[in-house]
Amino acid sequence: MLTVKLSELGGDAFIVAEGEALLQMPLPDNCIVSLSGSNPIHRDAMCWIRSMGKVIFLDTHYSDILSRLSLMKVDRIVGHGNDMAENLQYRQQFYEGMKNCPGNLKSVFIFLSSNNQLPVFGPTVKL
User: Fold this and answer.
1) How far is the C-alpha of 49 from the C-alpha of 54, rounded, in Å?
2) Burial 1-30 (b: 16+ CB within 10 A, else e)
3) Of 55, 94, 101, 96, nearest to 78 (Cα)?
4) 3-state secondary structure (DSSP) of residue 79
5) Which residues pair with residue 56 across a beta bridge?
6) 31-35, 69-73, 106-110: which has the minimum mean pLDDT?
7) Each residue's pLDDT tens digit, 84-102
8) CA–CA distance, 41 with 78 (Å, rounded to integer)
9) Other CB atoms within 10 Å distance of the CB of residue 85
């Protein structure tokens, strides 16, 4: 379980281990990879994943995420500090920073904001 590994390694070492695992993961063509919320903190791994194709970032309101974490009985996430809401705010810079990854110009970064609108090469599509 990830929370056990996080407790064993600590936040910084967990980010490194998680990022290295992602960098070593072979990806078949036409696949979907669902990442953890802390993956974007490892910039090299996220720039690599972005170079592989489309990245869709589902930007969900903090209160929704905190509610889901509570239902899952998760009491700790990687960030800086012990407050989960602050950690989610801290992570936002990394999620948005993926737009600036160098590499494959064919890759597309799609940012789905909490207002449920998906920008798609022109007009906005309501979901």
Assistant:
1) 9
2) eeeeebeeeebeebbeebbeebeeeeeeee
3) 94
4) coil
5) 110
6) 106-110
7) 888 888 888 888 777 777 7
8) 9
9) 13
Looking at the predicted structure, is the pLDDT value of residue 126 above 70? no
pLDDT value of residue 20? 92
Mean local confidence (pLDDT), 50-64: 80
> Are 57 and 109 contacting, i.e. CB atoms less than 8 angstroms apart?
yes
Q: Report how far residue 31's alpha carbon sits from residue 34's, in angstroms, rounded to the nearest whole number.
A: 10
Distance CA 84, CA 67 (A): 11
Structure tokens given for 83: 């407050």
Query: What does the domain layout of the chain look like in residue ranges?
Result: 2-26+35-52+60-108
- The residue with greater pLDDT, 82 or 1, is 82
Residue 27 has pLDDT above 70, yes or no: yes
Rounded CA-CA distance 47/54 in Å is 11
